Amino acid sequence: MEMQLPPHEGVELSVVDMHTGGEPLRVILSGYPEVKGDSVLSKRRYVREHLDHLRRVLMYEPRGHYDMYGALIVDSELPEADLGVLFMHNEGYSTMCGHAVIALGRFAVDYKLVKEPQSPETQVNIHCPCGLVKAFVEYSGGKTGGVRFLSVPAFAFATDVTVTVEGFGEVTLDISYGGAFYAFVNAQRFGLDVTKSRTRDLVDAATAVTNAVKSQVKLHHPTSDDLAFLYGTILTDGKDNYSSEVTANICVFAEAQVDRSPTGSGVTARVALQYHKGLIQLNQSRTFQSGSTGSQFTGKAVKETECGDFKAVVVEVAGRAFYTGVSRFVQEPDDKLTHGFLLK
Ligand SMILES: O=C(O)[C@H]1NCC[C@@H]1O
């Protein structure tokens, strides 16, 4: 039987669904009106102010779920960019997303957003709100595979910061930037284990930390105020000294949303932090494992650089994304739940 859309009014929103290490990525193919703005960052402001109802339609139930993640491809103002992208989640729009870059690298080659793919790797320049991220997509025999990307400059923002966390008292943590700011704490501080504890307990502890940092620490970013906010908290297994052993973490971001992947921007920020503390050297690759699914990315610092007054590093993160399907979404005018809802 031919796939036909049910009767509906208004626009159809079509998407390609992917996942990277278990973390969903809903890539929007069509249905969005023009996103206005003369830069990717101003387009991010525009969708937040004018098109947020579409984020809720695509991310929330009944079409999505609490932990859904999306990408809207937009034009970039940078001549070297192959595409610009806005990221969306359960609370709004992030500035960087590594798992999405890994998926979008494949998508860009498969959907011909770049001309003439090269073997063994095709470079795809993706302009994220945090800046230009260079992705390198394995390509052979007409098929795309794993993706590695080079981050925007990543830096340790503050180490050994003590905040008062509701329910836990004083907690000492680090804050690092990998295209987005994260607080890092060893899960042991809360009597938890990132791979074994109940997800709900990890989420509660991480969320309490996020709330504490947001209210007690002022962040700033050298290039834009739009980037100066805490995106989430990453609980780790504390294995930050270089070793060939796998190290696990779990990222709780946006509105208590749980990353199923090891978190590309989080790995970037964590590697920058480890480098800043002298725990790893350039080109020492480590394997980072998601506490939620066990999926893995590799990460290494490849070059020293600066970001304003911060000493920074360029970090390379690698992983693999997969397609899960395509959907065409519609809205019926008499459906009271059509605009989306979330269960907390
Ligand atoms: O991989 C990442 O960087 C993202 N995954 C969800 C939260 C982060 O944006």
From TrEMBL:
What residue stretch is flagged as signal peptide? none
Domain of life, per lineage: Eukaryota
| Example GO molecular function | trans-L-3-hydroxyproline dehydratase activity
EC identifiers of the protein = 4.2.1.77
Recorded hits in Gene3D superfamilies, A to Z, give: Diaminopimelate Epimerase, Chain A, domain 1
- Main EC class of this protein? lyase
Catalyzed reactions per annotation? trans-3-hydroxy-L-proline = 1-pyrroline-2-carboxylate + H2O
- InterPro entries, per database record: Pro_racemase_fam
Keywords, alphabetical: Lyase
Any one Pfam family match given in the protein's UniProt record, by short name = Pro_racemase
Q: How does it assemble?
A: Homodimer.
Family the entry assigns: Belongs to the proline racemase family.
Q: What is this protein called?
A: trans-L-3-hydroxyproline dehydratase
Q: Which organism is it from?
A: Larimichthys crocea
